Amino acid sequence: MSHYYSENQDVPHSRKEVTFRLLGVSITLITDSGIFSKDHLDPGSELLLENIVKKPNIETFCDIGCGYGAIGITVKKIFPQCEVTMSDINQRAVETAKENCIRNNVQCEVIHSDGFEKISKKFDMIAINPPIRAGKATVYRLFEETVSHLNIDGTLLVVIRKQHGAQSAKAKLAELFGNCEMIDRSKGYWILQSNKH
């Protein structure tokens, strides 16, 4: 059986609605089987969003591994002037994220891409809730790719569970960027931040 970090999903569809609120904005999204955290907004993504929206001067934002679009769509609703790009290797996730953009009346670019494979732009902020099940090599490759896709003074935010290798991920990001700090933590999740200088 394929996991959510794979290109095509052959599991039967099982669509449902997920609703959450952030900063007074209510967002309803369609989810489906074969997509990460289809039953609710996972606590890691929620913590990641809480930290993203603390940084109001983002003009360009990218969510790598966007799933059904919860992070990118929320960012666009809270910062309508921000150009939002979302990507996922999972074709079903991409189709669902596109549908959710229409349902929420937001304009985001949604790309079917393995990491940054089909993305050439640079961003003020990149956010990743990494696909731990895909393995450390895949996760670290995504980290490495962010370096060349951030603008100078751009920020990378990563959410990762402590038990899923947060400490080694922090060391890897420090090696890549020359800096990395844990800026928040809750329920076993860490938010790691690196800045490109």
Can you tell me about this structure?
With 197 residues, the chain is of the alpha/beta class. Helices cover 28% and strands 30% of the residues. It has one domain: Rossmann fold (3-Layer(aba) Sandwich), CATH 3.40.50.150. Residues 1-6 have low confidence and may be disordered. Helix 2 (70-78) links the parallel strand 3 and strand 4 (83-88). 42% of the residues are buried. The N and C termini lie far apart (42 Å). The radius of gyration is 15 Å and the shape is globular. The chain has five helices and nine strands, in the order E-E-H-E-H-E-H-E-E-H-E-H-E-E.
Secondary-structure map:
Elements: E1 16-22, E2 25-31, H1 43-52, E3 60-64, H2 70-78, E4 83-88, H3 91-103, E5 109-112, E6 123-128, H4 136-147, E7 150-161, H5 166-177, E8 181-186, E9 189-195
Parallel strand pairs: 3-4, 3-6, 4-5, 6-7
Antiparallel strand pairs: 1-2, 7-9, 8-9
Helix pairs in contact: 1-2, 4-5
CATH class: Alpha Beta
Strand arrangement within the widest β-sheet reads 5-4-3-6-7-9-8
Q: Write down the overall geometry.
A: globular
Helix content: 25-40%
**What Rg, in angstroms, do the CA atoms define?**
15 Å
Give the CA-CA distance, first to last residue: 42 Å
The CATH topology turns out to be: Rossmann fold
SS strand fraction: 25-35%
Order of helices and strands: EEHEHEHEEHEHEE
CATH superfamily: Vaccinia Virus protein VP39
Number of strands: 9
Q: How many structural units, i.e. domains?
A: 1
Can you tell me the residue ranges where pLDDT is under 50 for at least 5 consecutive residues?
A: 1-6
Structural class: alpha/beta
Give the mean pLDDT: 91
What CATH architecture would you give?
A: 3-Layer(aba) Sandwich
